[in-house]
Amino acid sequence: MPPSNQTLIEQVSARKAPPRKGSLASGLRAAYRSGSLTTLLLFLPPALVFFTLFVILPVGESSYFSFFNWNGYGPPHKWVDFENYLRVLNDPVFRLSLTNNLLVILVSAFVQVPLALWVALLIADQSRVSMVFRAIFFVPYILADIVAGLIWHYLYDGDYGLVGTIYRWFGLEAPHVLAQTGWATAALLLVVVWKYFGFHMALFIAGRQNVPLDVIESARIDGASRWNITRFIVLPLMRPVVVLSLFFSLLGSLQLFDLIIALTDGGPLNSSHSAVSYLYTFGIKRMRVGFGSAVGVLLFVICVLVMLFYKRLFMREAESK
Amino acid sequence: MKSLFRYYRWLVLVLVAGFCLLPLWATIIGGFKTNGDLRTNAIGLPRQWVPDNYLSIVSTPRFWQMLWNSTVIATFTVVLTLLVSSLAAYTLAHLRFAGRKWIANYLTLGLTFPFATAVLPVFIRVRDLGLLDTYWGVILPQVAFNLSFSIVLLRSFFAELPRELFEAAIMDGCSYPRIFLRITLPLSRPILATVAVLALVGSWNNYLLPLVTINDDAVYPWPLGIMQFQGQYSTEWGKVLAFVSLTMLPAITLYLLAQKQIIAGLTSGAVKG
């Protein structure tokens, strides 16, 4: 639109706009006539009510309940100070769950994200072949975690499944991967990579397509090799996407639940829990509302701290943009 | 050199594609196998095709009931999420009023913590409202937990729509609610689609919330049903695999039909959220 036109509209609308300073009543009348008052009074409350009722209040209640020994029936009355918190923090199973969360993050950072980045750079162009592979790699991500968990539960089953079959090719007795501590957690990590690398790949492809073509073109004309272009131009320009992708790994790890329930159910010997599956197994399943709420509050604090620190440390440039 | 790169590229891509698809192949094909076949032959075609696993599941009304439950829950979740969040996002994007910034920040608080942290109080709230074992007991909390990211996405999109349109409409005497219906919504289809995809996938796959608020298996959405089924037939993998394959079908069909929108929705939503 030519600039003269725009200023004209601005002039007209400025003339029609109600005076800035007027009596409250006249302001309200104007607001009513333009529909802005109606909008304010009708459009905003549904979101506020929903959000307050099911998101904000529950988080507050969580911290209140966490000081009680309560099975959820009747009003909570048995105040126990910090006993729930002490019990959670002293529970080796909870510590192991957090360690598992950390392992998921590490595997994501050092295996999943590099794999996704590697593959994304191979198929970032618009050719048909790339499109087909992109579609294939994204498939595990669209499946429900439950489904992914059950599929791999079968594959890992020593009597049936892929692992069993492969061992039998060599005439060996197959191990029951999911029945051995340590192995079960490792098995879980592989499934996490399988399930989520496609998501990271899609992020990277979008990021790669935002790298300006002329920069790459001029480097190529100057005789830079394919590897050097990737190493010194593409990767540095994609740093913000990598930062973002790791952020989602963090978030995802802190929410990991369905997959574990379907794959190992936290076993064997409670060795493969995540923070959330711990919360479910030891808080919700047994209706220990106080204890479960304490786990919830700890998880909440961890999430908020992790996010604040991560944003502060790595995402400043993205935000100031 | 160039052809060497090409071989390397194909090798990597085919290997990774195999890693992605082999488990799915083994699952679908496994549903057609006898238990004995499953023991020795995980990847190959069945020695003898047995359709019984699939047929027995498809012929039980429970299976269809489950899918129906999930469909109803997902539909209402998507519609309500779009409605409630677009109304709020519109107000926050276009009206200036005292406390606007405060309210906007308040509504995005949900981005900082996952649903699991609040699951117990949500259960108690749903129970006290008398909504346990109902669709609403899943729908309402889902909508509430969708609001933060939806409002962030919608609001930034609404705010970037050309101002001239609004000014012209206001000059013509069009009221704010009408502008919302006639101008903002029609122009915002791409972002509404993104929000819808995120809400749909989230609802369809949700497990923790219905696990907590639904006990009655007549109201089970499919993720609960599938776990119950697996509990019943844990040793008969053929049946479980057939069940898993059948529940993958709707998601994969939808993915094949609207692949571009889904990938874009799930990732761009993430980027902006």
Summarize the structure.
The complex is a heterodimer of chains A (321) and B (273). With 321 residues, chain A is an all-alpha fold.
Give an overview in words.
- The complex is a heterodimer of chains A (321) and B (273).
- Chain A is mostly helical and 321 residues long.
- Chain A has helices at residues 3-16, 24-34, 36-65, 83-90, 92-122, 128-142, 145-156, 161-169, 183-209, 213-221, 226-237, 239-255, 258-263, 275-284, 289-314, 316-320.
- Chain A has a domain at 90-142 and 182-320: MetI-like fold, CATH 1.10.3720.10.
- In chain A, 75% of the residues lie in helices and 0% in strands.
- In chain A, helix 3 packs across helix 15, helix 6 (128-142) crosses helix 9 (183-209) and helix 10 packs antiparallel against helix 11.
- Chain A is flat.
- Chain A starts with a helix and ends with a helix.
- By secondary structure, chain B is mainly alpha-helical.
- Chain B has a domain at 62-232: Orthogonal Bundle (MetI-like fold).
- Helices cover 77% and strands 0% of the residues of chain B.
- The interface between A and B is large, with 97 and 96 residues.
